[in-house]
Amino acid sequence: MKKSSVGAALRRRLGERFVDGEVVRRALALDASRIPPAAVPLGVVRPRDARDVAAAVRICADHGTAIFPRGGASGLTGGSLVSRPGVVMDFAPLNRILRLSPEDRTVSVQAGVLTGRLHEALERLGFLYPPDPASAAFCTVGGNLSENAGGLRALKYGTTRDYLLAATVVTADGEILRLGSDAHKSVAGYDLLRLLVGSEGTLAIFVDATLRFLPAPKAVATLSAVFADEQAALEAALGLLKEGLLPRALEFVDGVCAGAVGAASGPFLIVEFDGHPAEVRAAAAEARSTLKKRDAVRVSLARAPARREALWEARRRVSTALLKISPTKAAEDVCVPLSQLPALYRALRRIGRACGVETCAYGHVGDGNLHVNLLPRPRRRTDGAVARLMKAALELRGTITGEHGVGVSKKRYLPLETGAAVLSLMRRVKRLFDPRGVLNPGKIF
Ligand code: LAC
Ligand code: ZN
Question: 177 - beta bridge partners?
Answer without folding.
Answer: 169
